[in-house]
Amino acid sequence: MQFVPEDSPLIREMAVAALTLALLQPGNAATSAATLDGYSPAHATAERDWETKFRALPDPKNLRDTMQRLSARPHHVGSPYDKDNAEWMLSRFKEFGFDAQIETFYVLFPTPKERVVELLEPTHFAAKLQEPPLEIDPTSQQTAEQLPTYNAYSKDGDVTGPLVYVNYGIREDYEQLERMGVSVKGAIVIARYGGAWRGIKPKVAAEHGAIGCLIYSDPKDDGYFEGQYFPSGPFRPSQGVQRGSVMDTDYPGDPLTPGVGATKDAKRLDITEAKTITTIPVLPISYGDAQPLLAALTGQVVPESWRGALPLTYHVGPGPAKVHLVVKSNWDIKPIYDVIAKIAGNEVPEQWVIRGNHHDAWVNGAEDPVSGMSAVLEEARSLGELLKQGWKPKRTIIYCAWDGEEPGLLGSTEWVEEHGAELNQHAVVYINSDSNSRGFLFASGSHTLEHMVNSVARDVQDPETKLSVQRRAQLRRIGRAQKPDDREEARGTDLRIGALGDGSDYAPFLDHAGVAALNIGFGGESDGGIYHSIYDDFYWYTHFGDTEFVYERALSQLGGTMIMRVADADLLPFDPSASADTVKRYVGELKTELKEKQDKAKERNREIEEGVYTASADPQKKYIAPGKEQVPPYLNFAPLENGVEAYLLAAKRYKTAVSKLADHDPTVWDSPELKAINLQLIQTERTFMTTEGLKERPWFKHQIYAPGAYTGYGVKTIPAVREMMEEDKWADADAGSVIAGGVLMKQAALVDSMAAELEKLAGNTPPATQTARKHKKAEEGQVSGR
Description:
By secondary structure, the chain is an alpha/beta fold.
């Protein structure tokens, strides 16, 4: 090795090069320190400094301690520890420097009174309907405080009938049953979890004449087929059961006060008038309890894709299995406790940046939801530390710990309905999280926020790879892409975020109130099968979830940085171009789907005429060939196409106008005109709404995103067209095209007007370099007219 003196030029050059390389590494907050989207050059450096200080504050030990405290006992709606947790979090927010309070709502929350599942024929078997406590897992032994295994908002019933296996119990499965000549009319169906949200299963079963529904967890989906089961591994044991709500999602929130806040004095419907309670009784069971029931079935062997991993031959039935099902509940009004904590904005306190996670669980809920709630509390603590150091957010920040999410987004929905007028006037954005664990970044939401998500994600380091969490997620997407075009798209500057349907507390903000929303978290490397069971607890999480709590810290860093980035921005970091490009893709998908439906119907009808189905069927098995179907007509997509093209042009104009701001006089960034543009940006998500909402689900008012009526959690984009196409309601689909095209034209007009204001603002203000030169000449007496 050659000796080089410490003060030589080579050493200095090497040091500069090393520093430069370090600053350019993904995840380093110093990257591009001179610029920051939405910030003037004068404010960008200070913002990055504060964000860097913030990301150093979240502590894995605090996160572990918080999880252990919140998940120490079962804390479902109406339980003593649910209230205790709310009061503890209230005290913590106040310690952090927030102005905090609890808002209480009163909601219908049924709990089980009687549950029976028994096989009557050909032999007798009584289901245990009980998850056994484990000696190694301390909180699993808190049996007196645990909610029994049940599905909330199931109709009461006492029914007996033949059993039929329906796979996942979605509409496509019933089409297969029809071709097999199997009816579920008067039967009790047994469906496995998966394929769609659990509440869809009794809904579709009832539509086909079933009188009851059982839902079980097959080991192929989250049990021993996937890996070692608990407590030796993370997956569901044989007696593990997934609790959960089966409330119809057409009206989230309290079933007795649809559309209004469920305060103590709220007028309530009679329970029999509630539209969201199932029409048949339904109960979840373990695969240990399901196995004797499925083994008793005969009839046709199921298609290969219907087969689970139990050691038996899967038959459809009916016969000879006959089942007795009893579900009876206590239909009580229970209080729920939303913890609402605020930091008042220093400059524009009337604009609200909102962050939330729910705190209630079906049992102890370490993963769902405490992993997310712990991270949110640690964010709040870290922001409180910044307040002590002199940081003052420009906008008001509101942190929310929602209650009643598990039964049906109760706490967030009631709060949104109660404060709807205020949210319309003040809310800028809502950022949600829920479960969190070791793995990759996931983010979905309003595509106007896509660029901001990527920008922040580049500043947060992945704990395992030391890449930025954005880069790691991007590389994973490239590796998983099946098509060359998908790989090239994944290599783009920004990673596309997903669209939001339902399933957590973002839904009332986005779908009902028109507040731009995000859902964020990490996962994918600690899969398990303890969802909504007694085994979702501190023991499981500290052995299989995020054992070092480093992804808990990463979620705190990510969520808190996003909140700061929006709260402190000079120009709100909304990007219409990402939104317009995404909506264009949705319109293209609709056209492709229509063409595929037309081609499929034509081919199916031709094959029926040719006798393909009859000839292909086994003559010794019952089979009913499908009937001919109407070929879908051509639809008028012109309103959508015109709307999206106008939106694209306006968004491009806006992006160009914004790019010119950084080169202009700093006074632009603090001008009344820019403040007015911020008010318009807040309205961009509202512009996607209609007062009437979706035709068959008026609570959902957003015309670009909505959960599917038959998917539950899964999103349906441009739902007024897409869902009507899926239902073969062609006139309604045409009408939906006009409605969605109309909101796109309104959006285009709004964005275009903002672009015009920005151009005017920039055009009337000389670039900063010219201004500086002019000032210098003025000092020298060289300006003409002096």
